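Researcher: Checking consistency across runs. Here is LuxR C-terminal-related transcriptional regulator again:
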Amino acid sequence: MAGRGTDEHPHGADRLCDIGDRVYSRAVRRGRVPRRDAEPVPCLLDLALLHPDPDDMDWLVPTAPQEVMTRLLRGMYDEVSASQRRVGSAVEAFEWYAGLGRQGPASPSATEGPAIRVLDGVARIQAAMDEATQACTTEVLTVQPGGIRREAELSEGLHRATALRGRGVRMRDLYTHVARHGQGLHTYLELMGDAVEARTLDEVTERLILFDRTVAFIPANAERSMALELRHPALVEYLGTVFERLWRLALPLAAPLPDTGIEGISHRERSIAALLAEGHQDAVIAERLGISVRTCRAHIARLSETLGAASRTQLGVKMAQAGLDGPPRSAAASVTVPDRGSRTAR
């Protein structure tokens, strides 16, 4: 994996540099090392031999030597036909890691893998996702927040989706209603055919990708340059349950959005009105619905015009009178728009 410091440390996990050897060995013996100790050896992070401690980001914890051995062995089998000469050095590396593993305390992750692993950097996140994709055999569940998906984002995961489709894996994706307006999403679904089913909601949770109900990935920071890889059964089951409940509430992409029951007010404007009634600021509403702040304010202006409100305070009153401050009323109920004559909608 390419990454930081590869020019200064051009090697793999099977042959560490001297300082990398010392820092990693110390981490195994002590259970963790300060992040500053690894600054001279970025190779340890690039090779996933060290990763941030979820409880304290100023410390790094080691990947269990047994896990490193398993990873090396898997890579060796993939490359053996093209590079027989690497077998000898890999065997020597296994012996070194095996000896080192006996020096450290026994860890549950040595046999089961870590329940929570911090992935620092886009390259590590993508590598972990590729590994999970290769192991997936049944289903992938994803939640994709935000608005219209950029074609670059869709293309980034296309190779994984294509590989999954080739193995008969079922994929279900949740988006916000705004994503319906992006041509890139429709093109992606056409390419994937029946392998992918998509539904939409007014708003969804943060990004989630769940493979075979065994491993999940969620963001670990706002910039999404860090992620958490979750393998704890209780956490993964909980996230799967959240997805299924959202899925039942969501609308198939091919289905039209429901009518608001109020003339001149769109489904999106009803959603904005409900969030305004909860006291949210424009920026928060825009983020939750996957639209820009400018677009959000344009919808609020149209709401004010339709309801005849001259101020935000008056808008709140008008929304309550029109029944826009809570769940939609029954379609059979007649709603009168305040201060707009006798105009009604059903």
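Researcher: Does this match what you'd expect to see?
Model: One thing to look at in this run: The two ends are 59 Å apart (CA to CA).
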